[in-house]
Design brief:
The complex is a heterodimer of chains A (about 240) and B (about 425). With about 240 residues, chain A is of the alpha/beta class. Chain A has two domains: about 1-90; about 115-240, Pectate Lyase C-like. Chain A contains three helices and twelve strands; from the N terminus they run E-H-E-E-E-E-E-E-E-E-E-H-H-E-E. Chain A has helices spanning about 10-20, 200-210, 215, and strands at about 1-5, 25-35, 50-55, 65-70, 85-90, 105-110, 130, 145-150, 170-175, 185-190, 220-225, 235. In chain A, strands 1-2-3-4-5-6-7-8-9-11-10 form an eleven-stranded mixed sheet, with helices on both faces. Chain A is globular. Chain B is α/β, with parallel strands linked by helices. Chain B has one domain (about 30-420): Aldolase class I (TIM Barrel, Alpha-Beta Barrel), CATH 3.20.20. Helices cover about 35% and strands about 15% of the residues of chain B. Chain B contains 13 helices and 17 strands. Chain B has helices spanning about 10-25, 105-115, 150-155, 185-190, 210-220, 240-250, 270-275, 280-290, 310-320, 325-335, 355-360, 365-385, 410-415, and strands at about 25-30, 45, 70, 85, 90-95, 120, 140, 160-165, 175, 195-200, 230-235, 255, 265, 300-305, 320-325, 405, 420. In chain B, the strands form five sheets. Chain B has an eight-stranded parallel sheet with strand order 5-15-14-12-11-8-7-6. A three-stranded mixed sheet of chain B has the order 2-16-17, with helices on one face. A two-stranded antiparallel sheet of chain B has the order 1-13. In chain B, strand 16 (about 405), helix 13 and strand 17 form a beta-alpha-beta unit. In chain B, helix 2 crosses helix 12 (about 365-385), helix 5 (about 210-220) crosses helix 6 and helix 9 (about 310-320) packs across helix 12. Chain B is globular and about 65 Å long. The relative contact order of chain B is 0.17. The chains are: A alpha/beta (about 240), B alpha/beta (about 425). At the A-B interface, helix 1 and strand 12 of A face helix 1, strand 1, helix 3 and helix 5 of B. Strand 12 of chain A pairs parallel with strand 1 (about 25-30) of chain B, so a sheet runs across the interface.
Amino acid sequence: MKINAKGLHYRELNREIKDALNKGEKKVELSGINGQRFIGAGLKSNAEISVEGVPGNDLGVFMNGLTIRVNNNCQDGAGNTMNSGKITIHGDAGDVIGYAMRNGKILVKGNVGYRVGIHMKEYKENRPAIVIGGSAGDFLGEYMAGGIIVVLNLNNDFDSDYIGTGMHAGTIYIRGKVDERKVGEGVETKKAGNIKEILPLLKEFCEEFGLDFEKISNSEFTMLSAKSTRPYGELYCY
Amino acid sequence: MNDFKTNANWTASVISDIKKQAETGGMLLTGMGNPSPYPNYWDRILLDASQVTNPSIDPLREPMELRTFLGRKSSKLEKETYPQLELSTPIMFSAMSYGSISLNTCKSLAMAATDSGIYWNTGEGGLHKDLYKYANRAIVQVASGRFGVHEEYLRAGAAIEIKVGQGAKPGIGGHLPGEKVSKEISETRMIPEGTDAISPAPHHDIYSIEDLRQLIYALKEATDYEKPVIVKIAAVHNSAAIASGMVRAGADIIALDGFRGGTGATPMIVRNHTGIPIELALASVDQRLRDEGIRNDASVVVAGGFRSSADIIKAIALGADSVYIASSALIAVGCTMCQKCYTGKCAWGITTQDPELVKRINPEIAKKRLNNLIRAWSLEIKEVLGSMGINAVESLRGNKERLRGIGLNETELKILGIKHAGE
């Protein structure tokens, strides 16, 4: 089903999307998107939504199972507190992508802004993942409590500061070397021995964006993880 | 302790705290609300009563309306209506998470709220599977850690509360230590067992009023505009301006938590020295919203150490729509105010996850005691309304003419917006 979003307020647009999914539509194509917020908010569905244009903040916020593909850039907060599903961005994405996401995937072809993957967490079989083709802003993976973040740094301009500040679980993989001075306190930085864990993600990413999987997967990766699962364990006296 | 040579400045607690910190190098942790002897304005406010010219009403014979609706009110008849919470009496149970309190205590509160026709609040602990059946009487909280927050949880609750701040710890986040994250808590918060549950101080998608609006509308979009959204802040120095922003951001209900509000754990330095009394915050917020003509765009709920129905009546006359109680509810269940919640060893089975201790709370009995407290306070509110010649609680709301200050200076009276006794 096709929806032309030109001139539609997000409330009307989301209403139309909901109505379409309630009617059993499995594929919704949105065109003329120009900054509408909250697309797919809180939807529990395994439908696919394709977005033509630049969606506004909080794309897929609280979503549970949708597949959203954006043919352009997207603004801040995509995948905010999402429970499951997949968001693919064929461009750059803004700040706080994947805040507190619990499961599912976010693939961004280009660069992302600040605080991406902040407080993402994992639980049982839920293990969220964010893969970024370009570079990321400061505070990548702040307070990270689970899941995987991969930065492919394909333009070799990754220069994030305060990486993983406050992280207490999960893993960040960055292609190439990382200056330890740019990594948050309490984060261990080492050369990734093997990247088996992220190979399926890399394959999916390369297929989606038409990149050379062999070349990327044979690169050297740096692996960041928390030194302690209790970084704030000894702050108090009783 | 007896060996300390204490005096008015160097009390036994001051000396023992220094010794503890010298031994450990840690911040002092504590529980429940601010115990310091700061002025309590409820105790300096007196109520009016009817004599001769406007007769009082006998609540035993006449109907008295305590029913309270919380949410944005339409300003014009033809405008759209907004979702409301309907309370049988202007009292709700304040946020207490499963984690900070035991599941049996959560159950007691949930069942009592259901029986009494009021609401309970999940805090940032998610909604345990056994409590979904009480969800239509639950306010589900969304805090910075987003623990247990998913679409089913958001849809289940009667209202959604964005917790920005808490009176016992304004400006700082929450921290449930890994030792307390048992199997059941891990399932409810949706985090692995034994890991720390850290709620950062700010929501990282809220750095401004515009961002707050974004989260409010994200929640409304996710729940089809069917539920009121509450925004809760701690009462701090510029609460009035912040509250104005919260209402303009789209909050249907704003909750203010004063510095006597309780908590399961907080650094003592913050609890004892940060924030302002709820009395002053409430009066200034209510006045500000009235001055700006937006008081009906949101309801005002206040929290922070309500000890009796007298405190509640005075709060309503100062401008509140309803109050949140937590410490007094826990006292009804068994709490002795020992302030050791943070140890996780509560002998009453309230703020502990030790199964042997939790068993000490029988939810059926605790529920009955909570229902009794709500009934007793409601009867007292009706009694006082009758004495004032008022037959509906909404006629008391913001009715500052029925209050008088006693022993307060001019600045205090001005902020509270009330006259001195005798005037």
